[in-house]
Amino acid sequence: MKETFIEIINYIKKPTNEKDSNTNYKYRSRKFFLILLICLITSFALSPIFLVFEYFEIVDMENHKVEEMLKNMSNLQNFIAISLIAPLFEELLFRAPITTFKKPLFFKIAFYTFTLLFGYVHLTNFDINTNTLLFSFFLVLPQIILGFYLGYIRVKFGLLWAILLHSSYNSIVFILSLLEP
């Protein structure tokens, strides 16, 4: 896992529009599960940020739009929306276009821009006020980092792998949220 994580970090530092030449399904599946694990570990590692915001009442975490949606729909409807529909649309919007940029500089700009846009679109999950705007980077940092991971797998393995990774990640996070008291 360490090797895959370092590979991703190096890619984020210098993204290129180059597919992974190894098309072996076993290789890709193993890499996929390692990246999924890295996504989950990263997400949990960043979660104390939200505890600090909540503790100091910097941002109202109880008024999160996803929480609102969870209350207004059945678990099955939520699962479909969070684990299937959102990943499909978000990947088509934020990841599908990046490989159309062929020149290295334009690709790099597109990769970073679409990643930041993906992160910042999640700011709409919060009530927009002064604190939300001041701390916006930290509020969407988990999505920005996830966007880098999704961009990496999109370029290396293709769009379907990015959709699958996003869907798997959202599914696991959703199922874990159901375990909350």
Walk me through this protein's architecture.
The two termini are 32 Å apart. The longest helix has 31 residues, at 25-55. Helix content is 75%, strand content 0%. It has helices spanning 2-13, 25-55, 65-72, 75-94, 104-121, 130-134, 136-157, 159-178. The chain is built from 8 helices and no strands. The mean pLDDT is 93.
Quick summary:
The protein is mostly helical and about 180 residues long. Helix content is about 75%, strand content about 0%. It contains 8 helices and no strands.
Hey, roughly how much beta strand do the residues contain? Answer: under 5%
The end-to-end span amounts to: 32 Å
For the report, how would you describe the main beta sheet? Answer: none
Content-based structural category = mainly alpha
Number of strands: 0
Topology summary:
Blueprint (H helix, E strand, L loop, with lengths): L1 H12 L11 H31 L9 H8 L2 H20 L9 H18 L8 H5 L1 H22 L1 H20 L3
Helix pairs in contact: 2-7, 2-8, 4-8, 5-7, 7-8
Keywords:
181 residues
